[in-house]
Amino acid sequence: MRVLVVEDETKLALAIARGLQGEGFEVDVAEDGERGLRAAIERSYDVILLDLMLPGLDGREVCSRLRQVENWTPILVLTALDGPRSEADLLGVGADDYVTKPFTFPVLLARMRALLRRAGRSADPECRVGDLMLDSRARRCLRGDVEIELTSREFELLDFMARRAGETLSKEAILDNVWDMNFEGDPNLVEVYIRRLRNKIDRPFERDTIATVRGAGYRIQSDE
Ligand code: CA
């Protein structure tokens, strides 16, 4: 589960990011509207937490531009505004829901999870593909009862793929989403990591969970 936090109050942004990381989410923070918009378009997020009052492009503008380019990532607005008019206004530009500042972290988390559920995205920290289980909160990976040790990059790669089981993912999409946003990496790096993962999650168990889709990328699927 990947979350983009677009918030110019650094302390608040970091507090939200830390809280969400503690719950097993991957978090990126953008401190202004331009960067937020760019990140939201370039990477794939499960949900965006969007402040309204931002320097440069404000939250409303970010929201409506995303919807204009048919990016339908669920958006939870963080706002100091209140009242029915601002609510209609927010929903009018394509936000899905809002939380009024000041809010407590548990309230934010509950609203975000509810939004993810409505959007049909499971916010469950556990993800299963056949007998392979990933727990993004505890950062554990199990094949049946056997615990598998993964580095943090290997875990992120496997988690990204497992949550999109059945989809073919290009090396470029994997690089953009698993490595840092501005990482100009060599797509061959993905091959290296896929090989390492296979050596840990598949080979020792004589399994074939990670398929190569020739010319297109990789796909993870249950082989049971
Ligand atoms: Ca602000």
Brief account:
The protein is an alpha/beta fold and 224 residues long. It is 40% helix and 22% strand. The strands form three sheets. Strands 2-1-3-4-5 form a five-stranded parallel sheet, sandwiched between helices. The protein has a four-stranded antiparallel sheet with strand order 6-7-8-9, covered by helices on one side. A three-stranded antiparallel sheet has the order 10-12-11.
Architecture blueprint of SSEs:
Elements: E1 2-6, H1 10-22, E2 26-30, H2 33-42, E3 47-51, H3 59-68, E4 75-79, H4 84-92, E5 97-100, H5 105-118, E6 126-129, E7 132-135, E8 140-143, E9 146-148, H6 152-162, E10 168-169, H7 171-178, H8 188-202, E11 210-213, E12 217-220
Parallel strand pairs: 1-2, 1-3, 3-4, 4-5
Antiparallel strand pairs: 6-7, 7-8, 8-9, 10-12, 11-12
Helix pairs in contact: 2-3, 6-8
Largest sheet descriptor: 5 strands, parallel
Q: Per DSSP, what share of the residues sits in E-state strands of 2 or more residues?
A: 15-25%
Strand order of the largest sheet: 2-1-3-4-5
Poorly predicted segments? none
Total number of beta strands? 12
Instruction: Return Rg in Å.
Output: 19 Å
How is the quaternary structure best described? single chain
- Counting DSSP H or I runs of 4 or more residues, the number of helices is 8
Structural class estimated from helices and strands: alpha/beta
> What ligand molecules are bound, each kind once?
calcium ion
Roughly how many Å apart are the termini?
25 Å
Which sequence of SSEs, written as H and E, runs from N to C?
EHEHEHEHEHEEEEHEHHEE
Overall, the morphology is elongated
Summarize model confidence as the mean pLDDT. Answer: 90
Percent helix range? 40-55%
